[in-house]
């Protein structure tokens, strides 16, 4: 069985993508974000931020990336909003 949570934020959000991923996984698992293992053990947080950073034209890039974090499939999508979806994966 899988659990799913989505959070949407406007493009001008002050929170980083990495921080929002950790918060989404913590909310899904009912865990304190500080109790989760470091995100960098699964994905480079700087690279994650860079993927969706504004371009030189100051426009946010659009797209989707999926990766596994602490036993969860995480999907980060940008279009009009930033959406982070967390699904449980089989261990």
List its salient traits.
single chain, 91 residues, alpha+beta, 4-stranded antiparallel sheet, 22% helix, 31% strand
Topology record:
Blueprint: E1 5-10, H1 17-29, H2 45-51, E2 63-69, E3 72-78, E4 81-88
**C-alpha Rg (nearest Å):** 13 Å
- Measured by DSSP, the beta-strand proportion falls in 25-35%
Largest sheet: 4 strands, antiparallel
Mean pLDDT score: 80
* Strand-pairing-aware structural class: alpha+beta
Distance between the termini: 12 Å
Strand order of the largest sheet: 1-4-3-2
Shape: elongated
What order do the SSEs take from the amino end to the carboxyl end, as H and E?
A: EHHEEE
InterPro entries: HalOD1 (IPR040624)
Organism: Natronoglomus mannanivorans
Domain Halobacterial output: 14-87
Protein name: Halobacterial output domain-containing protein
Question: Would you mind describing this structure in some detail?
Answer:
It is a single chain. With 91 residues, the protein is α+β, with helices and mostly antiparallel strands. 22% of the residues lie in helices and 31% in strands. It has 2 helices and 4 strands; from the N terminus they run βααβββ. It has helices spanning 17-29, 45-51, and strands at 5-10, 63-69, 72-78, 81-88. A 4-stranded antiparallel sheet has the order 1-4-3-2, with helices on one face.
């Amino acid at each position: 069985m899988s659990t799913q949570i989505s959070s949407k934020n406007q493009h001008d959000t002050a929170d980083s993508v990495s921080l929002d991923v950790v918060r989404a996984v913590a909310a899904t698992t009912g865990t304190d974000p500080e109790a989760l293992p470091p995100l960098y053990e699964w994905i480079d947080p700087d690279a994650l931020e860079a993927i969706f950073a504004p371009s030189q034209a100051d426009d946010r890039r659009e797209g989707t990336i999926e990766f596994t974090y602490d036993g969860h499939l995480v999907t980060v999508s940008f279009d009009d909003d930033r959406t982070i979806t967390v699904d449980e994966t089989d261990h």
